[in-house]
Design brief:
By secondary structure, this protein is α/β, with parallel strands linked by helices. It has a single domain, classed as 2-enoyl-CoA Hydratase, Chain A, domain 1, CATH 3.90.226.10. Helix content is 50%, strand content 14%. It has nine helices and eight strands. Strands 1, 2, 3, 4, 5, 6, 7 and 8 form an eight-stranded mixed sheet that branches. Strand 2, helix 3 and strand 3 form a beta-alpha-beta unit. Helix 2 packs parallel to helix 3.
Length: 313
């Protein structure tokens, strides 16, 4: 019986020591997880910053700065003016940029977005006359995409590229006869004589058709003027040049729409003289684009479906 108190004290001491060891283990694991989280967060922030400026050690030496113009040019797509312009400005801001390469693969799109990029390229060229800007068209560089390319110092294509399509269109459908056959009555109320212009469920009026063609003519004239300003005397005198036709890359060189043949890699290596390429195209923040661009995208799609959005293509 004399060993009873000693046994209880030993058990209590063991329990206390085990509790202390458990607390130390929990503290060590807590430090480990906190440190791991900090390392992960630092790595992610570093990766984002790395991607933002191209993610390439070539940025530490003379290099070719790449900016992509890919897909439909629209305020609601990756090929939107503010994104392309941001890439161009970042490229110019890097003291190691030897030349800028616009890699174009786009069928066209918004005349406004294209004009904004065109104007900014010309402005930046004047501010940085020692840094040339070249456009390299891969598969397609048509309509609004060619408008952007025309701002560059020179344009390079593949012989099989599709180039040109210098024209403007507004397209849509007319359902008047179908509605009549179905016995559906159209009820369109407007405040303003022409507020319902191009309504697909109403007959197309002759004066409104003429008006729309006049607006398209003005946009076409702006397009032609921009191409002539960018290309100058290099343009040929083919009467079909601004008819809306598209051309192969081989034809484009003969017509003066392009200056020569070459891939983006060729332009960087042989024309700019800096084979190392750093991509300055801003990375997409998909969460932000999803939250802010969904409504704009739906609106733009609806406008195009109804034929209310002019497109250079």
């Amino acid at each position: 019986m004399a060993e009873g108190p000693d046994w209880e004290r030993k058990l209590l001491r063991d329990l206390l020591q085990e509790g202390l060891r458990e607390r130390r283990r929990a503290r060590r694991w807590g430090i480990f997880f906190k440190l791991s989280g900090l390392i992960y967060l630092t790595a992610m922030l570093g990766l984002l910053a790395w991607n933002r400026v191209g993610g390439d050690l070539a940025g530490l030496k003379a290099h070719t700065a790449l900016v992509d113009v890919k897909g439909l040019i629209s305020a609601a797509t990756p090929a939107r003016a503010d994104r392309i312009v941001e890439g161009l400005r970042n490229a110019y801001a890097d003291e190691h940029t030897k030349g800028i390469l616009l890699r174009i693969d786009s069928p066209g799109g918004s005349p406004v977005q294209a004009a904004m990029v065109y104007d900014e390229i010309r402005r930046l060229r004047k501010l940085h006359p020692k840094i040339p800007v070249y456009a390299a068209i891969t598969d397609v560089g048509a309509s609004a995409a060619y408008y952007v390319a025309a701002a560059a110092d020179r344009i390079y294509v593949n012989p099989a590229s599709l180039v040109g399509s210098i024209g403007v269109l507004v397209n849509g459908f007319g359902f008047v006869d179908a509605m009549h056959k179905l016995g559906v009555e159209r009820r369109l109320l407007t405040a303003g004589e022409h507020k319902g212009i191009l309504d697909p469920f109403s007959p197309l009026k002759a004066d409104e058709k003429a008006y729309v063609k006049g607006v398209l003519g003005q946009l076409h004239a702006q397009f032609i003027a921009a191409v002539k300003k960018g290309r100058g005397e290099r343009l040929g005198d083919d009467p079909r040049l601004f008819s809306g036709l598209f051309w192969s890359g081989e034809q484009a060189v003969k017509l003066g729409l392009a200056d020569g043949f070459g891939s983006p890699g060729f332009v960087a290596r042989e024309v700019i003289g800096a084979e190392a390429i750093v991509d300055y195209t801003p990375k997409e923040d998909w969460l932000k684009r999803l939250s802010t661009g969904l409504g704009a995208g739906l609106g733009a799609s609806l406008a195009r479906w109804l034929g209310l959005s002019p497109v250079w293509r």
